[in-house]
C-alpha cells in the first residue's frame, strides 16, 4: 500500500478535514486523469473540500494561504508538493512522507506559481478516543503483570519472556512491511543509511527461507510459541528443547546475515532486530543449560509453532486478498468514472422532451437532473438518497412523482398531495427534508402523516391535483412507466449505471 500521495492527505489533515487516508487514496487513484492537478482538485471537491487551482505571480506569495499544494520542477521532474510557510524567508516542503527545508529563494527557483489552495475547515471535530481498545490494553497489561508476580519468575525467566515479546514485535513489523503496510517511524529506521532497505531485503527472492515462508513468518510463530511456553513453564529457558532451538537458530542467523551482506547488499534493520534477539536467546540458553533433558516442552513448542504458523498463513492470505480486492475496486471505480464510457452509454439511451416549465419539486427550472419517484416504491428509497447526496453537494436536482391522481384507490396519493402542498407553501429545502423523512419511514401512511401534523383542510387540492396530473402526463408522453427513473440532460439515464455515478460527471 504505497502512500505516494500522502502529503496531499497530510495537507487535508492539517487544515482540519476529517477524511481518512483510505477514502482519499481510493478516490484519487480512481480518477481518470490521475495524477493531474485536475484530478486532485476534483477529488477534493468530491470529498467536500472547496479548493482553488490557480497560477499565482510570485509577487503575490505573501497573500496566499500558509499551507498550499505547489507544482515544482526538481531534477527535470515536475511534481506536486505540500508547502508550509515556516517564516518570512523559508518554507517546509513535503513530498509523500519526506520533509525538506528550503529558503524562499530556493523555493522560488523551483516553483512556477501553480498552486492548489483550500480554506481551513472551521468546523469543530471531536477527537474520538477508543475507550474499548484502551480498556482491553489495560486489562491485558494488568493480567500479564499479575501472572509475572504470582508465578514468582526469576529474573532470567522474565528476561526470556521480554526477549520473546521484543522478537515478536520485530517480526510483526517485518510482516507489515512485507504485506505493504507503511509506517513513518519504521520507514525512517529502515532507510536511515544508503546501504539499508527493509523493503528490498524482505521482498527479495531469498526472503523466503522455507518454501513460501519468510523470516518474519517463522519468527512470528517462533517468538509467539516461545512467549507462551516461557509464561506457563517458568524453567523453559533452562530446558534441553530451547537449547536445540537455539542451535537451529544459529543457522537462521548466519543465513540472514550472509544474504543481506553479500547477496542483496542491503541491510534490513528489522531483520537485524530479529537476528539480535535470536542471538541473545542463544547466549542465554548456552549459559544457563543445566543438563535438564525434558522433551515435553519441545513437543509443546513444536505443536504451538505449527498452530501459530498455520494460523498466520491463513491470516496473510486474507490480508493479501483484501489488498487485491481493494486494487480491483480502484480499477473498477476508474472504469466507472471514465467519461468516454459514460457518454457512450448515455447516447444509447432514449431521449425525452424537456419542458422547464413543468411543475416539479425544484429549486430552479434549469437542472440537468430530474428524479422520478413514487411514494410506494421500495427501490425509490435508494434513488432518493442518491439524489440527496448530489443535493448536499450543491447539485441541482428536480424531483417529481409518477403517480396517477385520477386513481382514487391509490392510498399513497394522500402522501403526494401533502408533500406537493408543503413544497408550494415552504419551498424546496423543506420538501427534501420531508421526502427524507418519508423514505426513512416504514411507509405507514397514517402514522407518518399524523407525525407531520397533516390536515386535509389545509391542502389546496385543485392546485396540487393539476401539478400531479402534469407530472403524470409528462411521464406518459415520454413512455416512463416505472420508478425510479432519472433524466440526465435530455436522456433517460441508463440502467447500466448507478444514480450515484452521476456525481463524477456533474459540472
UniProtKB/TrEMBL annotation:
<dbReference type="InterPro" id="IPR038354">
    <property type="entry name" value="VKOR_sf"/>
</dbReference>
<dbReference type="Pfam" id="PF07884">
    <property type="entry name" value="VKOR"/>
</dbReference>
<keyword id="KW-0676">Redox-active center</keyword>
<keyword id="KW-1015">Disulfide bond</keyword>
<keyword id="KW-0560">Oxidoreductase</keyword>
<feature type="domain" description="Vitamin K epoxide reductase">
    <location>
        <begin position="159"/>
        <end position="285"/>
    </location>
</feature>
<keyword id="KW-0812">Transmembrane</keyword>
<feature type="transmembrane region" description="Helical">
    <location>
        <begin position="267"/>
        <end position="287"/>
    </location>
</feature>
<dbReference type="GO" id="GO:0016020">
    <property type="term" value="C:membrane"/>
</dbReference>
<dbReference type="InterPro" id="IPR005074">
    <property type="entry name" value="Peptidase_C39"/>
</dbReference>
<dbReference type="GO" id="GO:0006508">
    <property type="term" value="P:proteolysis"/>
</dbReference>
<comment type="similarity">
    <text>Belongs to the VKOR family.</text>
</comment>
<feature type="transmembrane region" description="Helical">
    <location>
        <begin position="293"/>
        <end position="319"/>
    </location>
</feature>
<dbReference type="GO" id="GO:0048038">
    <property type="term" value="F:quinone binding"/>
</dbReference>
<keyword id="KW-0874">Quinone</keyword>
<feature type="transmembrane region" description="Helical">
    <location>
        <begin position="239"/>
        <end position="258"/>
    </location>
</feature>
<dbReference type="Pfam" id="PF03412">
    <property type="entry name" value="Peptidase_C39"/>
</dbReference>
<keyword id="KW-1133">Transmembrane helix</keyword>
<dbReference type="GO" id="GO:0008233">
    <property type="term" value="F:peptidase activity"/>
</dbReference>
<protein>
    <submittedName>
        <fullName>Peptidase C39 family protein</fullName>
    </submittedName>
</protein>
<keyword id="KW-0472">Membrane</keyword>
<feature type="transmembrane region" description="Helical">
    <location>
        <begin position="135"/>
        <end position="150"/>
    </location>
</feature>
<dbReference type="GO" id="GO:0016491">
    <property type="term" value="F:oxidoreductase activity"/>
</dbReference>
<dbReference type="InterPro" id="IPR012932">
    <property type="entry name" value="VKOR"/>
</dbReference>
<dbReference type="InterPro" id="IPR036249">
    <property type="entry name" value="Thioredoxin-like_sf"/>
</dbReference>
<feature type="domain" description="Peptidase C39">
    <location>
        <begin position="18"/>
        <end position="121"/>
    </location>
</feature>
<dbReference type="GO" id="GO:0005524">
    <property type="term" value="F:ATP binding"/>
</dbReference>
